[in-house]
Design goal:
Elements: H1 2-7, H2 21-28, E1 32-39, E2 42-50, E3 55-61, H3 70-84, E4 89-95, H4 99-106, E5 110-115, E6 118-124
Length: 133
């Protein structure tokens, strides 16, 4: 997953050591849940949902596999899971004026604000989903 994260053309990490292996492991079950997309046993994309703040912590696809609809599928898995936990909405941030920024708009997310180079988004729960009390 780290290899995929470091291979992206946009939203590159300024400090690759900022995201550790332990962070990836913690988001698998302790802090949330994660999903991967595989082709012939090779992980080519992943998403992580953070249950502590009902957010998408990560969504990345290996550059050679972009444009195949994998990000849409992984995002749906993550948001569906967060809504199943009873959250009224899901949030995320991404680089402003990037392909990811445009991707989330196209998926129906609402941009709340832009601060510096970051765009912040919210996705309300489907109307048939009951929010947490």
């Amino acid at each position: 997953m780290s290899t995929i994260r470091l291979a992206v053309r946009e939203n590159a990490l300024s400090d690759p050591n900022r995201i550790t292996r332990k962070m990836y492991e913690d988001y698998l079950e302790l802090l949330g849940r994660g999903w991967v997309a595989e082709i012939n046993g090779e992980v080519i994309g992943f998403s992580y949902a953070d249950k502590t703040d009902a957010s998408i912590w990560a969504l990345f696809i290996s550059p050679p596999h972009e444009g195949k609809g994998l990000a849409k599928q992984l995002l749906k898995l993550a948001t569906d899971w967060l809504f199943e936990q009873g959250n009224a909405c899901v949030r995320l941030s991404t680089g402003a004026e990037t392909r990811a920024d445009r991707f989330y708009l196209a998926q129906g997310w609402r941009r709340e604000r832009v601060e510096a180079n970051d765009a912040f988004y919210v996705l309300p729960a489907p109307t048939n989903q009951a929010p947490k009390a």
